[in-house]
Fold this protein.
Amino acid sequence: MAFLSVDKQWELISRGAEEIIPEKELRVKLEKSRKSGTPLIIKLGCDPSRPDLHVGHGVVLRKLRHFQDLGHEAVLVIGDFTAMIGDPSGRNKTRPQLTLEEAKENAKSYIEQAGHILDIDSLKIVYNSTWLNAMLFSDVIRLSSHYTVARMLERDDFTKRYKSEIPISIHEFMYPLAQGMDSVELKADVELGGTDQKFNLLVGRDLQREYDQAPQSIITLPLLEGTDGVEKMSKSYGNDIGLTDSPEDMYGKTMSISDEMIVKYFVLAGDVEPKTLTRIRKQLNDSTQNPRDIKRELARTIVALYHGDNSAQSAEQHFDRVVVNKDIPEEMDDIVLKTDIALIDLISSEGLTKSKGDARRLIQQGAVRIDGEKIIDMNFVISKGFKGVIKVGKRRFLRVK
């Protein structure tokens, strides 16, 4: 096929990237690919440790989509085998291990949600248990002989744990080697990952050399902080914007980020072009511009990426009506109570909170209201004869009939 010039491809490939290792090598690969008409093999590995994806995951998924749009072969490696080891990246303790069955079950949801970003029709999906499970113990010994303990301890997280006398299990050393074998198996030209994956990606380069292959180039992407602007985006922190969130929730959550995070979200979550980013920076530096208006554009941009322009406009109107003007939305879920029920049980079972623990936290924070009245009693019970509206946070409503 006919590829764009290397410079044109580079504009998209480098957008939002933290590091490209090494840049010159990747440019050479792109030029050879363009001249031969042969697409590069672009690898992205994922351990489906959780079935829920958010726009933080979307950063690296969207980079894989960039390569798809440029005509290269995108390979999504489902780490069902490596999930049984547990990725030690960024951990100060051993990560819980999944069974192969748990990993495969999570992978179903992962692939479905990744389809909100990737072109599934052209995407190659593989499971690394296919080749890793087939290895004999003698193969594992041979593989482990290619790396030293000293090299493994160069990893920042391993170093910290070793110095702090926090246990490191031998099987954790096998994780980067197993991930590297994925690159060997696929003969990957490029591997993508978050900045926390840099060590693992470099191991892939080393192992490819050991197996007489050209080493893969590496592109790392920044980790996106969640809506709190502090912790890495994570469902467990409650600071995530889910890929499958409704347009209204996606818009409202984006509006809750701090002004300091606006540019980073435009780059990583909004995937905007450089010229748009230049305009945004200029507006933010203009004291006559209200950052809230710029944040509205950001929210529309993110919603439009996943739900389309019409949904983005509707979400903004909903935000103005419910949050800015504090009106109750015309449409909301409703329920008829057939028995008395604890408020915590009701809002968690109806999906207004993520769990009972989340429900308790929100009540404690004063974020739960019934007909406008704040409820702070953890043991509050709603009788079966009650009629009214329950509001959780700024955007979640339930009408009780």
Remarks:
- The first strand starts at residue 19 and ends at 21.
- DSSP finds 17 helices and 13 strands in the chain.
